[in-house]
Every structure is written in structure tokens, then in C-alpha cells.
Specification:
The chain is about 55% helix and about 10% strand. The chain is elongated and about 70 Å long. Helix 9 packs across helix 12, helix 12 packs parallel to helix 14 (about 330-335) and helix 13 (about 305-325) packs antiparallel against helix 14. It is an alpha/beta fold. It has helices at about 1-20, 60-70, 75-80, 90-95, 115-130, 145-150, 165-170, 190-195, 220-230, 240-245, 250-260, 275-300, 305-325, 330-335, 340-345, 350-355, 360-365, 375-385, 385-395, 400-420, and strands at about 25-35, 40-45, 85, 105-110, 130-135, 155, 180-185, 200-205. The protein has 20 helices and eight strands. The protein folds into two domains: about 1-210, EAL domain (TIM Barrel, Alpha-Beta Barrel), CATH 3.20.20; about 220-420, Hypothetical protein af1432 (Orthogonal Bundle), CATH 1.10.3210. Strands 1-2-3-4-5-6-7-8 form an eight-stranded mixed beta barrel.
Amino acid sequence: MVQMATRATAEKSADSVQKQAGELRYVARQPILDLGGKAHGYELLFWNGREPIARPQGDMATRTMLDNTILFGLEKLSRGLPAFVNCTAESVTSEWVKVLPPRMTVLELSAGEEPSEGLLTACRTLKASGFRLALAGFSGESERGPLTDLADYIKVEIDKVRGPERQKMLRGLQGVQARLVAQNVETQEQYGIACKDGFELFQGYYFCRPEPLESHKIPGNRLVHLEIMEDLQNDPVDMRRLSQLVMCDASLAYRLLRLVNSPVCAMRQEVTSIQAALMLVGESAFRRMAMLAIATDFSTDQPEEILRMALERGRFCELTAGLFGLAPSEQYLIGLVSLFPAMLRILMEDLVRMLPLRVAAREALLGGNASEGVPLHWIVCQEHGDWKECDAIVRSSGLNHEQLMHCHADAVAWAEAAFKFGS
């Protein structure tokens, strides 16, 4: 009977994919990093044009979210890492969530959920089949109960639970087997506090905002990289000079050769020298490969997720450039460079002074109102789940969200391939 019910539920959910998918506007993911700065998993966020369905409040919102998770592909969205999917109690007790792959899925329930006996039974059954359970928005000792003991993850919004309250709450969780996740970690100060408190996992964009180092001098090899980026802005590019600069840095030369020989460049002929690589790929492709290799080198001391995000931003800005009437090569540069200050731990104001960028490109990177900054602004808003601002950009540009989401999906896939061969 259970198998029949599960199959019927899956078929019912699959049938509703086409009906509900049209309501989806945006899908995004937020990384959850471990103490080593590596991605442990991703929380999936959805928006249907009216309200966020990352935290569904009703049955239809939950089913829409589940259907679109299937439609987009959980493994593609989470890179095969644990995917945190927000659920209602009914979606758990009714077994709707069984349409998702158990070993990859973390079912995220509100910590304030009143656990009925049916919910507890369903959670035990789902955990036995491979699902994991997370409690989101945990805020106090009073909430500890049967669900807390079943949870694999307990998520705490550290910006909402203050120091003394948080300490009391954590004392109340002693003996619980769940891993502690600090949510809304947006600054290095919050990250330091969360580490000191004993959190193991961290959700937020603190890793994009490392504190700039005072009197920080960029190492010599990275100054060479900035010199290369400066030369890349010339039209036409002096390929002979560039090849000499690249060969001055063994790490960069190796990365470029590796990228040329990777599926990212789709080259059928192997190359064994920088000069041969330049002759084969040409000026435009070399610009992109050089910047990719430089970004990889810049990010070696930072969490790997920051490079993945930089590649996604660069590729997205490049792919959407035509939609906004902008130059693709410059857009790739803007998207990629937007995270260089975090990688190098310097201020954006200092970085743009080192690069011979057009005034409009500088303004885009500094958060100004230049049209060159619109694609970057959209993807940053999308990363943070600022759906209304994403929609405002779409409306003002005369585009539709499907165009941008298609470009974003392509950028995610391209960045993943580039990351594997660039790291």
C-alpha cells in the first residue's frame, strides 16, 4: 500500500509540473559552507512572482516548490551535495517529498512547527529511507523536543538570537547529535562569533566580504596578473607581449594550458606551449581564459565557492550582454572582477584604480547607475533572493525572467566545468 501511495503521489506531482512550472519565476541556491570554507550543501530558493516559496506556507506553494525542484533537477542545482528543501508538515506527512532523491535531500521544517504524532512518525520513516531532517529558525531551549532529537541539522539565525540568548540556547542543545548551522552570516565578525559559539556550518555571504588588510601589498606575481589584465583591455591585444608575461608566471601558464586542453574551450587539438595556445584560440578566447586563470590564482587562499560565484557572474554577464545591448567581453570582465576585492582582500576603490577600465565599467563595479552594471546587479540580487529587485530590473529592461533564468542556468553549468579544470 505504501509503495502504491508513493507511486501515486509521484505521478500526481509529475502531472502538476507542467501546470505549476509556469508560475515559477526564479530559482536560486545559497551555499552552506563548513569550517574549511568548502560547500557542504545548498539551500534552494524559489519565487513564483508573488511570494517566496523557499519557505512555503501552504500546500500549493509546497507542491509548486517540489515540482520545480524535479523540473530543474536536484543534482544539477546542488552539484550532488545535500540540498536543503523547505517543507510544510503536510508535505512530509502526505509523502509528497518522496518524489525527491532521499540521499541528496535535507527536508527543512520550521523549528516552531508543532510536532503531531503523525509528523514524528513520517519523519522517522523518511529518515529510515535516507532523507535527512533540518530545523530552521531555531531560537530557544523551549523548542527542544522530539523533532530536535530527530534533526540532523539545527539552523539558527544568529542575527536574530542575541549573545546571551544564544548561549542559553546552545547549552540547552548539549547532547543533541544535530550539526549546528549559523544562518544569515553576512560579515566576518558574525562568522567569528559563530565559530566561537561552536557552529560547524555557515550560511550567508560573509566569505564574499573578507576584511581588507591595512597597508596590504599585492604579491609580485599577482601584480603581473593585473598587468596582463591591463594589456587585455587593449584592442587589438599585443599577443607577443602577453605570451611573454604569461610565461613569467609558471602557475598561470600551467592553468592556461590546462584550460585550453579542457572541454571548457572545446579544442580538439592539444597544445604544448603558450604561443601555440594563443595561435589556436585567438584573441577573444584568450582574453577569457587569461581572466579565468587569473581568477583561479587570486582565489587560492579563499573558500572555493567564491571562485565558483565569480565564474558564474562573469559568464552570466557575458551571456546576457546582448540582451542589454552591452559588450560581452567587457561584461565578462565586470562579472569576474566583482569578486576580486574579496579574493585579494583589498577595497574595490583601490582595485579599479589599478585597471584601465572605462568609466562606465568602473561605475558598474563600484555600484553606480551605469547601464553596464545592470547584469551584475541582477545576478547579485538573485544570489541573495531579492526577487522584487530582480523583477524590477526585468521590467525596466523590457526583458522577461525566462531569458535571464536560461542564461543563469547556462552560466552555472559553464562555471562548474570551468571550475573543475581551473582548480
